[in-house]
Structures are given as C-alpha cells and as structure tokens.
Amino acid sequence: MPAALEVFRQDESLGAAADLDFALAMLDAVRRGELGPSLRIYRPRPTVALGQRDAKLPGFAAAQQACRRHGFEPLVRRAGGRAAAYHDGCLILDHVEPDAGALAGSRRRFAEFGEVLAAAFRKTGLTAGVGEIPGEYCPGEFTVYGEAPGGDRIKLVGTAQRVVAGGWLFSSVLVVDNAAPLRGVLTDCYAELGLDWNPATAGAARDLAPGLDLAQVQDAVLAAYSGYAPLVGGSFSRLRARVLQH
Prior knowledge:
alpha/beta
C-alpha cells in the first residue's frame, strides 16, 4: 500500500487512441522514476479495445469495420484479453504504481482491486461480487459483476494489467449507463471474430439501479479506494505535461 495515491480527474477525453496511449505513458513515467502512485479517472469516447489475440484472427478486419459502423473506434490494446467496448456512459480508471516486485503481485492485484470495485458498487446499493460470468465478453476470473433480484449476473467491470520492470498499470472499465450500444457493437464484433458469448451478460449499473449516475459511482469508487490508501487530489493538466515531456 502506498503512503498516498494521487487522484487525477480528466474532464475531457483526449481521443480514443490518445486516451489509451496516455495510460502507457503514465506507466513509462513510473518506470523512469518520474511518477508515483497515481489514479486517473475519465469518461472515454466510444471505443472497442481489442486484444492481441483478436488481432490474429481471420475476422479481425471485418470486426474493425463492424465497430466503425456502430460508431466505435477499434483499437488494439497491450493489456488485457478479448474485445471490450466502452463509451461515455463508462468510467475508466488507470492506476499506476512503482513496484520492484510488480510481476509477482499480478494475481493479487486482480483480486484486491476487483474487491475494491465490487465494494464501491455495494456502496451504491447494488449486490456486487467478483468472479467470471459464464458467457461474458472478455472473460476473466476477476470480473466484477452486479446481481439482479432473480440472481442473473451482468458484467459491470473488466480489469487488465500491464507490468514493466519497476512498476505496473492496472486499468478498469466501469459500465455505469447505456449498455445497449455496447451489446450491439460487441455482438457484431464477436460474430466477425468467430467468438461465442452471451449478450445478456453485458449490462450497466443503471440496469440494476435506475437512479444511479456516473457522479455517484465515481464518489463510491473514491470512497472504496480510500480504504486502500490515503487519496490526494492532483491536477490532470500538470500530470499531462509531466508525462508527455519525453
């Protein structure tokens, strides 16, 4: 646990590709010893972040075209597994820290931060937990799910990591509102990639709590993170200047 975690609220997207690249630039600044424990929060542009394995499939080009037809920019990310979609009804967290033993702690971070984010959703009144949902998109052992009264589970958060010598990046996508476009683009994208999934597993927090909004979820996330480390506010414009100076 760090002595303090600096929180940077990014008010406007830099653009789909630039937002994805900025997370890696933060990690590089950590590697250089120029950035300490930091948490960046922002609302993204409509994007489908495809995995490295997706890019090797025969249907990759057609999947990219399907994403664009839905108004989503297809990008290939360095961290994570299969295709995941997000838009401005989502919150993205990019958490970086210096860590000499970054590789050894990978599984522990998935479990720890999965529980932090599940706790955040529980603070909003949802029933939430951590675990893979059968048939989910971008499947993972540490998916954060929300549970409907009948017991059906929907994916609320997908997480991914990238580790370098001396540090790590832990990225989380929280789906808060407007799940229909995400289901639509993922249905066509996965069909072109030849991957099976169950669209019923894709949802948003507002599907379970109609009065919930992004500000409430962000407040709950920060409250949950405060149990991990003391939080201090930071200036995103200063972070941007510091990270992009190289």
